[in-house]
Amino acid sequence: MRILSKRNSGAVLGYLAAAFVMIYLSYSLPRLLPGDFVTAMYGGADVALSAGQEAELRALYTEKISFGRYLLDLVSLDWGTSLAYRAPVSRLFLEALPWTFLLMGGAHIFSIFFGFVAGVEAAWRRGRFSEKFGVGAMTVLQGVPEIGSGAILLLVFALNLGWFPAGGAETVYADQTASAKSLDVLLHLALPFSTLVIAYFPGNFLLARASMVMILKQRFIQTARAKGLKAIRIRYVHAARNALIPIVTRFGLRFAFMVTGALVVETIYSYPGLGTLLFNAISMRDLPLIQAVVLISSLMVLAVNLVLDFVYTRLDPRVRNAS
Fold first, then answer.
1. Could you tell me which of 207, 235, 211 has the C-alpha nearest to residue 221?
2. Would you state the torsion angle of the CA atoms of residues 18, 19, 23, 29, taken in this order, to the nearest 10 degrees?
3. Is the pTM of this model over 0.85?
4. What is the pLDDT of residue 1?
């Protein structure tokens, strides 16, 4: 049995070529940013730089590294030193990565699972008041931007009621037990998590419902009903499995663009993830940090899409037979 079909082998080669292009773009594009690091970081600072310090910073920022050297550093995980934070880029990236995975991963999984189940149930109850109300409510929520829902939640539940922290991921410099620290992290996570769920849940619900409605019209569903199978078996074993394919696509694309998707919400709540790190890097023209975040985000998109190609061959027999 072959490990990779001809179709999957071609996909792997195509994604490797795309990865090379992404690496080159991550090397060249940040250097085209307008302005310069020194002006962006110290232009409005109270402390003036000496001529020597300014010359040193400008020389560091404009240092030209060949693409071959960039590739070697990339393979060895040597991403340089952040110009703004004066710390290794790899350390900054790895410190921010778990927070983004916790926030975005948790929100994605929650929204996908419960949105899919709610969409399946709504399609099964098509025409009832609960289904019509759910579709109307989700349609309205889908039009609410993350910055709008985030600002409202922040204003109401953090600034006015004081139920949740207004920003950050944890209470710093606090001596807490493990359970107290976990609760503190969850309290800081609550508002950004809710903002993302409000943004992602409606789309998953509506997509699952629409897909399920089409599946329920198929003849094999009518055959399953004629055989007297239980409703829950028809709903989830026969119908929902086939309605899962577009949901998998949506999950993959959303998860692939995790960093850019987190940028708005993390900035609103000052959440120390990759989105905030990228925003600060761009604001201060921090070239090594921009390169690292942009490159990893781009490669993540390619990796997730490659995984989706393999998942499709398992979920959809038509794709498997075609390969």
1. 235
2. 40
3. no
4. 42
